[in-house]
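Checklist before submission:
- one chain only
- standard amino acids only
- sequence pasted in full

Submission:
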Amino acid sequence: MGNQDALAGMRVLDCSQVMAGPFCTMLLADLGAEVIKIEPPSGDSTRAMAGPERGESASYWAVNRNKRGMVVDLHRPEGVEIVRRLAAMADVFVENNRPGVMTTLGLDYPTLARDHPQLIYASISGFGQNGPYAARRGFDLVTQGMSGIMSVTGDAGLPPMKCGLPITDLGAGLFATYGILAAYTHKLRTGEGQYIDTSLLEAGIALSVWEASQLWSGGGVPQPLGSAHRMSAPYQAFRCADGYITLGAANQRTWERFCHVLNRPDLLARPDLATDADRVRHRAELAEMIEAITRTKPMQHWLDVLDAAGVPSGPILNYAQVFSDPHVRERGMVQELDHPRGGLIKQLGPAVKLSRTPARLRRPAPTLGQHTAEVLATLGYDRPAIERLAEAGVVMLGRA
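Returned file contents:
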């Protein structure tokens, strides 16, 4: 069948930890890139996050599959030399340290690019490489607050609430991946590498498309709306007799169908509800009228009649229900890998399906230092040299 990996031949050196950088390099690895993850002797801090499971951390497993892993002490000159030699063989270098850290180590873009101008070097940080906040430590919680996300999350009048997902971490990883793929296409065409700079703060802001539109169009400073949509109504969660469902009547035809489902065709004649903009202005009153009806019957009744009428709706599932859902499973979003320490572990499947070059789960996340000797051998280090480096504490030789 030939090669089925879209990014076969791409070599990635991953000097990142925790979430944003590892998520980026995992996405590249899923598509076939060869990713070597460099960890300090203490390991990526997610290895100890939320308590080890079966001797390893599920948090670490979640974003480090399909990679080879090695341990190198970058505070030792010999360790820096190893990474420089690996970078000289790489297409892509990814790091998510605070600005200035890699310069201090001698592993910054200008230094590496002098000898390897084809290198694509991606830096992911809390606030970017320049600007008044560049030196600050950035965490998802902090940048959710500073990007505006927390100001519009939750219900009005409640304490600040963050998005339940680490959205700026994940967003920065996605934007870095997007930048790397664009830079790689340019490199294939011209032979030129380049530097990529993105941040958690910018990811949070860049995802705020509706909120920016509301502010700049004169709609005022966006406020939290619970589950409601700020540009359309009705489009939110509604209470039924036995719980909540979500539904969206986000255009005129769907609104008309929805009114018939509610047995309220009279709503179509009301001038204050004539357009989507009108319904947004009267969102609270409209939601009250709708819930007075939906609360009279159970969730499944409404899901059935809304689906039959072509009005988008759905249940609100917890994650146990999500991952047992037959559609989710048929779409390949629950997969399994055999981990040397954890046994058979579940992993999220790739969200993007490519017909000719699909993303694949090939190997589990590496144990600490699992591939150190293997990778050093590819650089020309013989076994005695590898053992000397290990004895000196420059590298750590792991085991499966």
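Reviewer check: The chain has a mean pLDDT of 95.
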